[in-house]
Design goal:
Isopropylmalate Dehydrogenase, alpha/beta, eleven-stranded mixed sheet
Chain lengths: 342, 342
């Protein structure tokens, strides 16, 4: 593995360094050739670094660099405020490290809108791409995953933007999963050609014309989890609602099954016996595994971790950043875009 | 209970009379004051009616009337074809029975687009409503349900239409659940006022101005199942995707749990012991219970049953039609609309 440097916005998310630092510590252990630049409140970062075992800490020291930032981008900050007034925030400094070639990727659990806007301003877009899209893997029935984009960066999308999403999602699947001909579907309320808005109809025609993409046409919401598709394209409003509804429904179903097993002593006994099975099931569908959405379309790698991510989930987001860095994802998407666009 | 007559489009859905007739038979048994008008292929309907026990059949005869139709609306028919060429279809004749006061409600599992278009043409809209919306109850964590609309009838909605949805959903919750101040939320990708499209911002302002509605503002997809809201308003494209994604995810999770219990002999034994608990859980979240979406906003009651509905699910759709008929739902919505609009 080539030596990589990952820039961490330690202050982002609901828990800041209390979660980011233990996650970095886990990554230090598991990825011995990766170094980390830690952006944020130096004292706080030191405090949590000191909780790492002294022996390990000494060993890790040459793979850690703390870069103090002045202020943080708050969850309540508008993108305008974040862009204009937070020029020395941990988020911005981490992104500048990627721009300046000092880091291969930036991981942040901060304000999504601000991360989008600052990334776009600092890193710039790939040729032919207007705005970043948020893409993430979602588990499927075939023990595999499907990439869904956009998850909330672009609430209204015309056919060109949806086509850009298809190209980028296709490339991500090809790079990260070595998928040769990923099946790409466009989310709609029916499979028939005449279904949905005019924009979707035009987008479908545009994507169908791209030889490099194995486009299967419209697919419906119930097919996302089937495992029959590797990339599902939609606008950011729908994608965000699909993702959040899935979170809500998973919570609803797991709460209901818990209640069913707590009904009486017999069901509790059954629950006790079945616990390993239930735990194996939970582990398999664990959303933490899928933390780390990518802001795709930029000239650098930016991974957005969930605001409420815990240590394990944050570690998964870091891992995602490392994998994309190994694959030199933006360069590969750029190469494909140049083939398709020009 | 007042005497009611329900018009059944026996030919709609994937299974036609083989499912609709047994469902009607169950309703005949459970609702002794309800009569049924059965629209469709007379021979086929008779064939399935003859499968009812002879004793019951004789008893039911005076509560059953078969009305032969010439042709059926096919799932592949465009709305134009359905409107122009299928004037004596089972779907249309059933809707005409509602229009002419011969039936209190129409139940159909046929082509949704055609059902929408023919309903609108035959029954006409309530004052102040432009087009019907599809509304359905969805289970929540608080052992209750939430009404979600629109589920696919209106793919693009302006603020006026979203406001009409809020008024209709609010009335449905008030009528069917005796909910005094149902909490009404507008689906968006964030709770903050500046989130989402301009249309959503304007819709939020319009709904907030209605004194009769307990409007709580924007809510996100993960809150749909929380039980904190009784009505969730969204456009038909998003609503349809939310609903279908939920179907897909439920299928994914139940398949995964089945696989977890089938791993080896020990897990199979645990599964055997836990089966009654799992079955109780399945029963509680059973989507069949929630079959029967209402085409709201019309001057008559039209219930859309799922195309793939089985006997139990179809029975639930019939029950929904009976309940709405008892509540004289369109009249009550009309009364409220007149208060709000004029």
């Amino acid at each position: 593995m080539t030596k990589l440097i990952i820039a961490i916005d330690c202050m982002g998310g609901d828990f800041g360094p209390s979660v980011t630092i233990p996650a970095v510590s886990k990554a230090l252990q598991n990825f011995p050739q990766v170094s980390f630049q830690l952006f944020g409140d130096k004292k706080l970062i030191e405090k949590y670094l000191n909780q790492i075992r002294l022996k390990d800490r000494t060993e890790y020291n040459n793979r850690l660099r703390i870069i103090a930032s002045d202020n943080d981008v708050l969850m309540s900050d508008s993108t305008a405020i974040a862009l204009k007034n937070k020029k020395t925030s941990s988020m911005r400094l981490a992104l500048e490290a990627v721009r300046d070639g000092q880091a291969n990727a930036c991981i942040s659990a901060g304000n999504t809108g601000a991360l989008m806007a600052i990334s776009r301003f600092i890193l710039k877009m790939l040729p032919g791409i207007d705005r970043p899209a948020i893409i993430s893997a979602i588990p499927t029935l075939k023990n595999d995953h499907v990439y869904l984009l956009d998850l909330g960066a672009n609430i209204e999308c015309d056919e060109k933007r949806l086509t850009q999403f298809a190209i980028m999602g296709d490339q991500l699947a090809k790079c990260l999963d070595k998928s040769k001909q990923p099946k790409v579907g466009l989310l709609n309320i029916g499979e028939e050609e005449n279904k949905g808005s005019n924009v979707l109809g035009r987008a479908s025609n545009m994507i169908a014309k791209l030889d490099s993409i194995n486009y299967v046409g419209f697919i419906e919401g119930n097919q996302i989890f089937s495992g029959d598709y590797q990339v599902v394209v939609t606008d950011g409003f729908t994608g965000n609602n699909v993702l959040k509804t899935s979170e809500g429904l998973s919570h609803y179903l797991s709460s209901k099954i818990k209640i069913a097993f707590e009904k009486n002593n017999w069901t509790r006994f059954c629950g006790f016996l079945a616990r390993p099975v239930i735990n194996a099931f939970k582990k398999e569908i664990n959303p933490e595994k899928y933390n780390g959405a990518c802001l795709i379309g930029l000239r650098g790698i930016v991974i957005k971790s969930h605001g409420s991510a815990n240590v394990n989930a944050t570690y998964c987001a870091i891992k995602e950043g490392i994998q994309q860095s190994q694959q030199k994802l933006p360069q590969r998407i750029k190469d494909q875009l140049l083939k398709v666009i020009y």
